[in-house]
Design goal:
Number of helices of chain A: 9
Order of helices and strands of chain A: HHHHHHHHH
Strand content of chain A: under 5%
Oligomer: homodimer
Number of strands of chain A: 0
Number of domains of chain A: 2
Structural class of chain A: mainly alpha
Largest interface: A-B, 23 and 23 residues
Distance between the termini of chain A: 49 Å
Chain lengths: 178, 178
DNA sequence: GCGTTACCGAATACAGCGTTCGATACGATT
DNA sequence: AATCGTATCGAACGCTGTATTCGGTAACGC
């Protein structure tokens, strides 16, 4: 592939991430993105069909990283052999922390639906395992609820980043009858 | 006050509520509202400074109803004498059910910030009482979390209205270590 | 070197918000 | 009933932002 394409795409991603640190997705204009990325308008729209499509690609890239397998032996954390909920959640939090700066910009407003769509897809499998059939509460309700808990926890974490992934994980799980 | 004013205002409210049943706040245009309400554009903007201002007034009106005191002796529910959490939450749910049709339209997208602003103001006092100081979790975190739980529960309820306020109340509280 | 392809940037169409203005219809006061 | 004030209408406008188009330019691959 032409390296010009890759460079443009990366420039757009970088500019987008940079802008997300300062303001919400819905407030960011395409003009701001292409100005900061220093690319033409045409290029933006050849790479991404719409502004929302950019966000989707952006989210997909984040989650590909966050949920990637075979990373259990990274230096920052090693949970090989552990398979309980807390370990899994903490694992995800470690990865998410790398993106914490621009998550609030995505998680507020209309855009959280796009993010959550990606997120729920990947989380449902994880949470489904820990669900007790005997609970007198609708499965649908609990699953949806756990998703939202998680998203809300991330949003909150972004404003209180002094907490470690382990602490956040404990906070989040503590709120549920496990 | 001129009865024409009141009529216009009500027509706008009614049209707005009607549109909210079918689509999200952010998708609704001022044009749609004034067409359905059958009022001129000028009138919309003399009554409400912006589209967001309409939503704020709309929310305020809902909550004035939901949180109104002295309604404990209504036919639908009577919790006089009871002051525990479940009773309070159920009470609120009974009132919210009257507005359930258009709540999802408000609770999705950017607009939920306006709704939640109103809601949190009134809920914080309620929830603060049931908070245990000894919990090893930040107060800020828990309060924010409970708000969000509640909002998310309402959103979910709107799509599953076969459940009674009592059931929803039980669902919601069951998720917390009380 | 030459064709292909990515790229630029200005102009354009379009949609939605909010404003302005002159004309009209209704309500209250006398 | 006549009149004054005001709520109302609707069309036009400016503004911002999204997405498209097009002619010209520069870089890449062979």
């Amino acid at each position: 592939m032409d390296c010009r394409q890759r460079k443009s795409r990366q420039a757009i991603f970088r500019a987008f991430a940079e802008l997300l640190k300062k303001e919400n997705y819905s407030k960011i204009t395409v003009q701001q993105i292409i100005d900061l990325a220093d690319v033409g308008r045409t290029i933006f729209y050849t790479h991404f069909e719409t502004k929302d499509a950019l966000l989707e690609s952006f989210c997909a890239e984040i989650f590909e990283h966050v949920f990637s397998e075979g990373l259990d032996k990274e230096k920052t954390h090693d949970f090989s052999g552990e398979h309980d909920m807390k370990a899994r959640v903490t694992h995800i939090l470690y990865h998410l922390r790398e993106h914490i700066d621009y998550l609030p910009g995505i998680l507020s407003g209309d855009s959280d639906e796009i993010f959550m769509g990606c997120f729920k897809e990947r989380l449902s499998g994880l949470f489904a395992k820990s669900f007790r059939e005997s609970e007198p509460v609708s499965y649908d309700y609990v699953l949806n609820h756990m998703m939202n808990d998680f998203a809300e926890t991330i949003r909150w974490w972004a404003g209180h980043s002094r907490y470690s992934p382990e602490e956040i994980s404990a906070f989040s799980l503590r709120l549920h009858r496990d």
